[in-house]
């Protein structure tokens, strides 16, 4: 392999730039040429491709977002679209690609590998929803952002005997909710794993107010479960707390990556280049019990999602 490409795809995540930098630096330092593919698979199809040097990735380690831009391209499922992408790669002499993104991006990487272009996936998503890795690039930073917001919401909620109902991202994965609940001392965490029984949650809130005499309550709820504005109104109606909804939204996707994300992204970027140099494709990089590993994408996509029963039990024992 002499020339590789790198792209970011799907929702951006803090630390993607650190991964781009690691891939570029590790590869160029062993004499490879690296090409940046802009705007994800869309840019691959359209030929938005430019060479990256060690200088082009200077001063990006600490920057959120992705200098390459990102996009979602559902049409990449279509073989004709992928053929166009491969034509572009051939035009630039790109023999292998590092794809930084979530599970949708992994599917594209696997399909390209099956068509003869070795691809390695790196888990870049704030959701932490990739079963083949203990942690994804961006999760630590997003978690910090959520916890920072929770700490602030506690200040104001306890000053007004309020209940803050906070919606966090996660795309059907409850990790951002559960980990931020544990870190911020929230009263209630609702995820797809815990389920949502509205009247039971209202009962528990009444108990926090009347029996436990709490001045505030923080409820963290994963996106796509219920309308938090409506639920906050019900809190005001049916409990002693006055309810307020906060949807943290895309704030969670931005910001300078934590050192944890920077190191993780650097280690994973290095592994991706090493795998490509060994002629490996169709794998994704993960961290498992502290070790950086390569896992076949097919296997990764079929793994059951991580159970959080233990952490949920811990949460229940702490409230
Ligand atoms: O996958 C990352 C993520 O931020 C999810 O948490 C969320 O559901 C989704 O992307 C939002 O997507 P978009 O930025 O396209 O609205």
Structure description:
The protein is an alpha/beta fold. About 45% of the residues lie in helices and about 20% in strands. It contains 11 helices and 11 strands. A 7-stranded mixed sheet has the order 3-2-1-4-5-10-11, with helices on both faces. It is elongated. 6-O-phosphono-beta-D-fructofuranose (F6P) binds near residues 125, 127 and 169.
Number of distinct helices: 11
Question: Over all CA atoms, what is the radius of gyration?
Answer: 22 Å
Distance between the termini: 55 Å
Strand content: 15-25%
Shape summary: elongated
Query: Roughly how much helix do the residues carry, as a percent range?
Result: 40-55%
| Small molecules held by this entry | 6-O-phosphono-beta-D-fructofuranose
Mean pLDDT: 98
Largest sheet, strands/sense/barrel: 7 strands, mixed
* Structural category: alpha/beta
Q: Which regions contain 5 or more consecutive residues with pLDDT less than 50?
A: none
| Sequence of strands across the biggest β-sheet | 3-2-1-4-5-10-11
Total beta-strand segments: 11
Strand and helix order:
EHEHEHEHEHEHEHEHEHEEHH
């Amino acid at each position: 392999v002499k020339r590789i490409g790198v792209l970011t795809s799907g929702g951006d995540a803090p630390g993607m730039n650190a991964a781009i930098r690691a891939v570029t630096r590790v590869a160029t330092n062993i004499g490879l040429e690296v090409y940046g593919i802009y705007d994800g698979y869309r840019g691959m199809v359209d030929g938005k491709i430019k060479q990256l040097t060690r200088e082009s990735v200077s001063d990006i380690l600490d920057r959120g977002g992705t200098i390459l831009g990102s996009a979602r391209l559902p049409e990449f499922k279509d073989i004709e679209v992928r053929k166009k992408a491969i034509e572009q790669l051939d035009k630039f002499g790109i023999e292998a690609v590092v794809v930084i993104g979530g599970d949708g991006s992994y599917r594209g990487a696997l399909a390209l590998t099956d068509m003869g272009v070795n691809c390695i996936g790196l888990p870049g998503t704030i959701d932490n929803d990739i079963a083949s890795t203990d942690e994804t690039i961006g999760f630590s930073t997003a978690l910090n952002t959520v916890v920072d917001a929770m700490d602030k919401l506690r200040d104001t909620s306890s000053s007004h005997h309020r209940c803050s109902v906070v919606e966090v991202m996660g795309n059907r994965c409850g990790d951002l909710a559960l980990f931020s609940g544990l870190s911020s001392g929230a009263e209630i965490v609702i995820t797809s794993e815990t389920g949502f029984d509205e009247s039971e949650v209202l009962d528990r809130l009444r108990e926090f107010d009347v029996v436990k005499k709490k001045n505030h309550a923080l409820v963290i709820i994963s996106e796509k479960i219920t309308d938090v504005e409506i639920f906050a109104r019900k809190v005001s109606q049916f409990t002693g707390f006055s309810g307020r909804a906060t949807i943290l939204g895309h704030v969670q996707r931005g910001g300078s990556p934590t050192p944890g994300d920077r190191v993780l992204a650097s280690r994973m970027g290095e592994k991706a280049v090493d795998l490509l140099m060994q002629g490996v494709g169709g794998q994704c990089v993960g961290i498992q019990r502290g070790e950086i590993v390569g896992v076949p994408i097919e296997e990764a996509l079929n793994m059951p999602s991580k159970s959080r029963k233990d952490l949920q039990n811990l949460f229940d024992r702490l409230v």
